[in-house]
Amino acid sequence: MTTLFDAVTVGDLHLANRIVMAPLTRNRAPGAIPTPLMATYYAQRASAGLLITEATAICPEGQGYADVPGLYGTEQLDGWKRVTQAVHDAGGKIVCQLWHVGRVSHVDLQPHYQKPVAPSAIPAKTKTVLLKDGAAVFVDTSTPRALDAAEIPGIVQAYRHAAMNAISAGFDGVEIHAANGYLIDQFLKTGSNHRTDDYGGSIGNRARLLLEVVAAVTDAIGGGRTGIRLSPVTPANDVVDADPQPLFEHVARHIAPYGLAYVHVIEGATGGPRELPDRPFDYAALKAAYRAAGGKGAWMVNNGYDLPLAEQAVANGADLVAFGKAYIANPDLVARLRVGGPFNTPDKTTFYGGGEKGYTDYPTLAG
After folding, report:
1. Domain around 151
2. So which residues are the catalytic ones?
3. What is the CATH number of the domain that holds 61?
């Protein structure tokens, strides 16, 4: 029987096990430049089959939180090269999550204090993070402006360019962030997309940006080095769709031909309940739609997984299981899962911003 600890081939990547470190925003990249401390942080966790970086902005307009990294400047790429080298030296594999936050931003984080962009000029009823005197401060997001259709090809090209930058920086691949109420997800869902042009209205139109990005990225670096993250029903960042099942089954069928390395699915509410009574969703049907359309990418599950639940998921056919908060406090999570614990408890006061404390100073079983 397949276990969490068995090796697996995922697209072009050969992984030592099926345990994945999920993307975790930690706000420790001043000026959007990855630091040597970040290299230490990721290398400490390199025993995971796959590391997915914290969400990384593809362009200055894609920034939405203070001190999160970017993938569009020379200093940023040099910083990421230190990270990827450290991970590879430790025997790990790492992909970069490509991010455009869309409306989940603040004018203080945008070039020239301009409005954030979105499919429609509808503010997100959520918070973002600014840093004041070195401390994280949660503030309301700013009202966005609607993207003109003529601007959208430039955003698609920003994803393409960021993917190529990622490979040049030494990453093993990329993950397209199409989840959690950020730009691509905003286009997908009816609550945030009120457009009347070719990018709004029908399911096909709302999925157009996602599919254009997938086409551009896979053309640039190959499907075998490309993953995608989806969150069909999460309410994160004030996002909702009137009928998510047909929407995401459409997405699953249409990404299938691109030969993706994996599909990363957040089940339920990101960081919250796995079951949402007011937002039922059939994840087995989503996977079936992908497979029926010829999709061969690994199926990665995410949200609230512990060891028993992860073992059950693999037994039921999941190829990969992503762990989030557990990786904050347990750099050697693979070793701890093998022996059933114990597990360190994360210090929530150090999640966003700061230095080594709560970041690189958690103990391992080896001491």
Report:
1. 8-320
2. 182
3. 3.20.20.70
